[in-house]
Specification:
Blueprint: H1 7-11, H2 16-38, H3 42-52, E1 59-62, H4 68-75, E2 81-85, H5 88-95, E3 103-105, E4 119-128, H6 137-144, E5 145-156, H7 157-162, H8 165-172, E6 176-185, E7 199-207
Parallel strand pairs: 1-2, 1-4, 2-3, 4-5
Antiparallel strand pairs: 5-7, 6-7
The structure holds S-adenosylmethionine.
Length: 208
């Protein structure tokens, strides 16, 4: 038994302040105690879909956490990648991996300290999920991407339905093109437990 947070605690979050507190406690054990132990593969799927859609750098990884998605992108030859996250403790773990060009704290729900049209791409894995970030954050994602830039992010499928992501994407339709929605497992086939079969919808589109 450990006192480390787990997925049930993460899904029970309600506010950005809750996220800061939980991820401050989870940062040190996240990679081994959560990602490896649960067979988490979502970051790899987001990176692969971004690459398949011919996404290019510079990329911003939103809710980058300990840097798993950035490492997967870099492994596919997509660079440079910057990281932002609400949790300075998660970013500190990333810093040790030297995957990212720049790392900065920020709350995607309240706006990032980034000029409009900065990035050629945005990725995000595991952050648009229950208790975390809802559809409102897509406005800020759209703001920081250049026209012609590619956005690829995972949205937990239950969260997608409950929080109205379909309506938000319809609302954004005049400003986006080439939208695809790909349903993927969040965990590998050997994973067991309550959330083993949870899925995410990876939304990918170009900003007009
Ligand atoms: C489940 S982790 C995913 C981390 C990483 N992307 C991955 O795939 O392993 C969710 C991340 O979202 C971050 N987060 C939660 N709310 C946020 C917000 N409002 N703005 C930016 N990051 C946020 C958390 O600090 C945490 O690092």
């Amino acid at each position: 038994m450990t006192d480390d947070p787990d997925l049930n605690a993460a899904y029970a979050l309600q506010t950005p302040e809750d996220s800061k507190q939980l991820y401050a406690r989870w940062a040190a054990s996240y990679d081994v105690g959560f990602a490896s132990a649960t067979g988490y593969i979502l970051h790899m799927q987001v990176a692969s879909l971004f690459a398949e859609h011919r996404g290019t750098g510079p990329v911003l990884d939103v809710g980058a956490g300990t840097g798993l998605c950035g490492a997967a992108l870099t492994a596919q030859g997509i660079t440079p990648v910057d990281a932002t996250d609400i949790s300075p403790e998660m970013l500190e773990i990333e810093r040790g991996k030297s995957v990212y060009r720049n790392l900065f704290t920020g709350d995607i729900l309240h706006g990032l300290d980034v000029p409009r049209d900065t990035y050629a791409g945005v990725v995000s894995s595991g952050t648009f999920t229950t208790g975390h970030v809802g559809p409102k954050a897509l406005d800020e994602v759209m703001r920081v991407v250049r026209p012609g830039g590619r956005i690829t992010l995972s949205i937990n499928t239950e969260h997608y339905a409950v929080q109205g992501f379909a309506a938000k994407l319809s609302f954004l339709e005049p400003d986006i093109q080439d939208l695809t929605l790909t349903d993927v497992p969040i965990y590998g086939p050997d994973t067991t437990g309550d959330h083993a079969k949870d899925r995410a919808r990876v939304a990918s589109w170009i900003k007009r």
